[in-house]
Design brief:
The protein is built from eight helices and twelve strands. With 216 residues, it is an alpha/beta fold. Strand 8 and strand 9 form a beta hairpin. Helix content is 41%, strand content 23%. It binds calcium ion (CA).
């Protein structure tokens, strides 16, 4: 779980970001202007800032200059190369052009949190504990061996818990290449994960779509 500052003046997008980030377990503080963002960052520490460039009172670039030491993903309707260059020049960790897909946004958020060592190090549910840093899984205190793909699938499902992930998404994340037409591969690995870790009640099949990790 990370503490995330959302800086976005369009309320619908701000709400959408907050809803989805909280759904996968993050804590969010929202700001709708540059001033609010700077104030929020002075009040408390954040693991990540999602920062719109076109804010009503100042540009996101200015906010970034004033808010130090918070990993930042720029979020903007502008896709101009000059903006990207300027954002990365200021030390941005990533750059997402609106409109974006929620699944892609969540994946990028996790990638930055992992890269900046602010991702969660472990996760527990029932008898199951997963240590992400050590790539270890324990069920009722016993270590369970997973293949690299099984471990990656499990990590993606948990990082995106309560969100439905398509087979294609899981394939591209866990295998890193376009496995078009081979989505049965995912089904096979999901079955193994469920069986090995007794996750039958938590890894739900979403009809004609994919899978979702549910905590309850
Ligand atoms: Ca804006």
């Amino acid at each position: 779980m990370a503490n995330i500052l959302i800086v976005e003046d369009e309320r619908a997008i701000n709400d959408l970001l907050k809803l989805n980030l909280e759904m996968v377990g993050h804590r969010c503080v929202t700001a709708f202007s540059g001033r609010e963002a700077i104030h929020a960052a002075a009040e408390q520490g954040f693991d990540l800032m999602l920062l719109d460039i076109m804010l009503p009172d100042m540009e996101g670039f200015t906010v970034m200059e004033k808010v130090r030491d918070v990993p930042t993903i720029f979020l903007t309707a502008r896709g101009a190369t000059t903006d990207k260059v300027r954002g990365f020049g200021l030390g941005a960790d990533d750059y997402i052009v609106k409109p974006f897909e929620v699944a892609e946004l969540l994946a990028r958020v996790q990638a930055v949190l992992r890269r900046t060592h602010r991702a969660e190090e472990s996760y527990s549910i029932g008898d199951l504990t997963i240590r992400f840093d050590a790539h270890e899984v324990f069920l009722a205190g016993e270590r369970v061996d997973l293949t690299p793909q099984e471990f990656t699938l499990l990590r993606i499902l948990i990082e995106n818990r309560n969100v439905c992930l398509s087979r294609q998404k899981l394939l591209s994340e866990a295998w890193g290449i376009d496995f078009l037409g081979e989505s049965r591969t995912v089904d096979v690995h999901i079955q193994k994960l469920r069986r090995k870790l007794k996750l039958e009640d938590h890894i739900k099949t979403i009809y004609k779509t994919g899978y979702r990790f549910e905590e309850s």
